[in-house]
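As a warm-up, study this chain.
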Amino acid sequence: MLLVTGASGTVGREVIGLLPPGQPARVLLRDPARAGTISGRPGLQVVPGDYDDRRSLAAAMAGVRAVFQVTCDPNRPEQDQALIDAARAAGVRQLVKLSALAVSDPEADDLITRWQRDSEQRVRASGLCWTLLRPRAFMSNALRWADSVRTASVVRALHGTAPHACVDPRDVARVAVRALTEPGHEGRTYALTGPEPVSPAQQVGMLAQVLGRPLRFEELTEEQARQGLLRRYPPELAEALLASAARQRDGGKALVTGTVARLTGRAPGSFRAWARDHAHAFGDPVPAAH
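Now compare it with the structure written out below.
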């Protein structure tokens, strides 16, 4: 039996969809009524659970061999520890932890990276077998541009020429499923990237080609970006995101690894392919001329 947490997130949903047919699995959700279509998957149980409710965690862990762990609230490290404690008490053998590649960057010291480092350390100290997945940022982050693309054919972002080896979350999920279902991944740390570094402006160009209509890229100043972030996040998180963008500007996110291909036997997906598969989110593509 496997347990998947973070099922409401991008990678968690993909993990569920990629589990082998017949693989018994549970999905931990605070509100199982929000399970949607995943509740109908054969062999899948949707169970209620709250990281602040240790009894619900214990019930969810019963009979579980491996857990896909997505870090919870960065301001609530005790929730992470509660999940680990429940796994250890239930005799879980392995934790497959979704982390971030910035953890390995000595220049990265922002709030988000420190949080992920602390979370990784709790996993390492758990006494359980573990596997750490460290992806670059997901290609699906481009979905934050969807509204402005649909309504104004424009994307506004920082550092338009900054290279970034962003990764398709489906590839991260493929690696996660391998780590959850195959032996030999214990004690391993996997750096996961896409096949090439692409800048925001290049992403917009690829998206325009997929949609068959022109899109405009407008580069934000740092202050414009800060004000936009502050409308959505607390100040310390906004500054962490700006620091992350600065590392990308300086080339700190351009390195490509071959880990996805080595572990899955298939080349990692390109941003162009991801955009093609998600074009509907940005508006219908213009039909090709005949």
